[in-house]
Amino acid sequence: MTHRIHRLAFIAVLAATYGAAAGSAQNAATGPYKVLQTARVGGEGGTDYIFADTAGRRLYITRGAAAARAATDTTPAVPAAEKRVTIFDLDTLKPLGEIAGVGGNGAVVCGSAGHGFTSDHPAPAMFDAKAMKFIKNIDLPAPAAAGDAVFSADGIYCDPFNDRVYIGSHPTKSLLVVDAKDGAVLGHIALGGTPEQTIGDGKGMIYQVLQERPGGVAVIDAKTMKLTATYPFGDNGACNGLALDAKNNILFAACGAVGAAPARGTPGQPAAPAPTPDPNAKPPQAMVILNAKDGKILTRLPLAGSSDGATFNASTMEAFSTQGNGTLTIIKETSATTFEVLQNLPTMAGAKCIAIDTKTGHIFTMAAERGPAPPPPAGGGRGGQAPLIPGSFSILMIGK
Predict the structure, then answer these.
(1) pTM (2 d.p.)
(2) Does 159 score more than 50 pLDDT?
């Protein structure tokens, strides 16, 4: 109970401190954005990234393998599912097909050759986007020495500047660079931090958000495939989303925490008491907005939850962040130095990743529904996670 009181007090302090920053924000009822469509497409298996192919008018979602589950008194039987790439019409969200046997954390379509790529395991995959067929797996660099970390694909990004695919790896803290024309590995970039979302300016610079606490952005020259700088975020960390206003050279980093990661307690010992709330503290979940040329932080604005993805719409000069608590934060860039929270839109619990259709301005996210969480064990401690409801996986289309 003591920890709960501290948390509530901290939240109250933050609300008061950042009331001015959010004072111009509109609520969901009066804000310009709303959920235009919810497509309950079903299917089992985990997900991570979502990708909108604006030119091809398709939406790509990778799904993980799922084991069969027997029926219970309250839930129906669920058949087994293999990993796959699921493909939908970007305008209607109707299913168009699947590519079986490949999956991973995400997929992109890259370049005029029409090749798609997945951040699959144990090796990324290449596929024919038009035919929706697997082509080959991508060769991975071997560890330099025994005991070194092994590459494991996570985030994936297509840079249209030179039709290259960047695939991030948490264990190796690096990016794999792949030629979209033939799937050849072109390089391996050490980042010095754990990569999450990647974004390019279309002119030869790549920006990579780093997840550490405190975190930062790695800056990469796409021509030389070399790390040229790292911009620190100060106290902000647990940053997963990154968006870019390429015209004004402004980065939007969606971060989920302030300060260093808490130290792990000793098993069997009570946890340390929560710190006294600081009335001048930064928001724990914040959009850190910085100059892409020199890394100077322009401002920090509060997010409605912990983010796992961000994007920017150059047509409306708005940045978007999806949060796992079922909210979408929209930030308006009113000038190259002035920003405000425009709206915090309720979406769907678990809808933490994001994609944008730059033609229509529509935003896409996804999640599955969960049933009630099981009660805590009789001896105390946390209860288990609420189970996913079979067949409830849904895609949300958001717009004005």
Answers:
(1) 0.88
(2) yes
